[in-house]
Amino acid sequence: MNYHSTRGQVPPVSFSTAVEHGLAPDGGLYLPEALPNLRPYLNDWESLNYPELCEAFFAHFATDIEANELHAIVACSYDKFSDPAIAPVRALAPGRYVLELFHGPTLAFKDFALQLLGNFYAAQIARTGRPISVLGATSGDTGAAAIHGLIGKDGVKSFILYPDGRIAPLQERQMTCTEADNVFPLAIKGSFDDAQTAMKTVFEDREFATEVGLSAVNSINLARILAQCVYYIYAYFRLPAQEREAVTFVVPTGNFGNVLAGWLVQQMGIPLKGFRVATNQNDILHRLFESGTYSLESVAPSLAPSMDIQVASNFERFLYYAVGSDASKVREIMHTFKATGQYQFENFDRQSFSSSRTNDSEIESLIKSVYSDYNYVVDPHTACGFQPAVGDQNLEIILATAHPAKFPDTIIKAIGEEPIHPSLEVLKERVITKYFVDPTPEAIKAFMREHK
Ligand SMILES: *Cc1c(COP(=O)(O)O)cnc(C)c1O
To answer: Probe ligand 1: pick from 101, 141, 403, max atoms within 8 Å of CB?
Structure first.
């Protein structure tokens, strides 16, 4: 299986190369040249445990990696999860389920992809002998999950930019209290957008990229999307057999990575009914699915910060399929959008998607009502999934994207109790190690050269 760019202006590459590059050199995102039909495997896959299912799934995609190597990579990617089911499904009430994706080392669903990605990188470095410098920008969960996926891996250095003082204190501790010497949390004076803009400029410098072995771990990396496909299939099997094809997956959404993974699984022939894109007040995607207009607005910080995005970077992958796999059309749309901040689709086909929007005061009241209805505590991102849906989607599985203990202030305010998780308690005792850099491409490059 090879991988091509949504913008169609570079030759297809192998799985390992797509993973190593992150972003395609023409500015597009990698996608498989063809989606496999997984339906014939359903019977065989039903009884597999999580790592077994993950391995069986990736055997269709990581075709340039030897089977025994793939086995070794996957087998050690889920051993730091605290629940034996890895991704347990809980029934809160008849027809209402939660898929708990927060049992990994940083207590957010991003661990599913980044633990695995760290091991793909390590295997790649062992094979090629070329070290890798990972550069990312985070408003919280991604950075922590990336750092924990890469701790102690030979040949990998991770540099994670974040806006100083503007991420949750416990998220900062997850990044800065690792005591690992290949990890560099870079605090910048400025906003997340400043960090991301500077990072993008660094990636555009191809010479520098080659010099340090630059790679991206943000959600544009194809391996992350594929890793997230696995828990949709796993969850499908955990639902009662007579409900499996009638349950809507409700996905708290920011960059469209998580929900895209589910949609791809459906395109590969697993009979998932459909998806609800649950946004917070930064609702570019909700507006798109309601009106067919994709338009930029400024980002207002919310109680669900990992969904505070202005542009949903993974939307371009869905767009590629939505315009009939026409890369020139994708280029035209992305160009118009970049130039005008807006694109109006004629006949926007929502396909299997519905959407909802949840503002901050609703997040608080939803945390409260979920607690009183089900005696279950949800984090502010997951709360957006509990927004009552329009229409008759009465069977739902809501993806719980983070553990509530990561956001104690909001939870205490909503239900008057402090959520606790032992792994966070340990961090509170540790020393913080962080580095200050200016949010300019030059300063970031200089720091990386010095520490590569
Ligand atoms: C990253 C994140 C999201 C948004 O996921 P996308 O793939 O960007 O849509 C939602 N909830 C939590 C807790 C996250 O960390």
So the answer is: 141
Provide the pLDDT confidence category of residue 192 given band limits of 50, 70 and 90.
confident
Residues 6+ apart with CB under 8 A from 338: none
CATH class of segment(s) 89-104+223-420: alpha beta
Tell me which residues have their CB closer than 6 angstroms to ligand 1.
108, 110, 141, 219, 252-258, 306-307, 381, 401-402
Q: What is the pLDDT of residues 326-347, one digit of tens each?
A: 999 999 999 999 899 999 988 7
> Cβ neighbours of residue 214 under 8 Å, at least 6 residues apart?
132, 133, 134, 135, 202, 203, 208
Classify strands 396-400 and 96-100 as parallel, antiparallel or unpaired.
parallel
Which of 89, 17, 86 has its CA nearest to residue 53? 86
Query: CA torsion 46→49→55→56, rounded to 10°?
Result: -10
Which amino acid, one-letter code, is at 269? G
User: Does residue 318 surpass a pLDDT of 80?
Assistant: yes
Domain ranges of the chain: 89-104+223-420
Residues recognised as catalytic: 110
For a ligand 1 pocket test, name from 106, 109, 302, 317 the mutation site with the most ligand atoms within 8 angstroms of its C-beta.
109
Whether 413 shows a pLDDT value over 90: the answer reads yes
- The structure tokens listed for 255 are 């960059």
